[in-house]
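[audit] Reproducing an earlier prediction to check determinism. Same input, same settings, fresh worker. If the tokens differ from the archived copy the diff job will pick it up downstream; this log only records the rerun itself.
[audit] input (139 residues):
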Amino acid sequence: MKYTAHEFAAARYSVYSDSYAAGAAVEGGEVDTKGYRELLWLFILGEFQATATVTFQGMECDTSGGTFADVTGAVTTALAAGTADDELYTGRIELMKRLRYQLIEYTIANDAVEFSVVGVLLDGVNMPASQSNTNIFTV
């Protein structure tokens, strides 16, 4: 049986689109990955203020609301104004080797950055995928 894209994948926000100020590390919302084999993080970057940088770190935990720990290797270098403005980056997590709950922690330095982070759950164990978002069109 052939599945369409919305039956194969499910999108979940970790960090909602906004302008975020420089400061200490902040954890985005957790994504429950139960029933999926892969997680593709989408880092959707907007405008960076003059000297801004942002770093993203993948984190995981085996319980919802628990204490999250870094996922080794799931970290970006500092993305900076002038090179990362209005860019889209991705990061892939193979979930069969990871804990159930995943999130992105971000650290912004020097100035504000506009961005959002979306997790796309892929390769569901039970198909079709369960959607929590609203499909606004199918062509």
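[audit] rerun output stored. Observation attached for the diff report: The chain has a mean pLDDT of 89.
[audit] end
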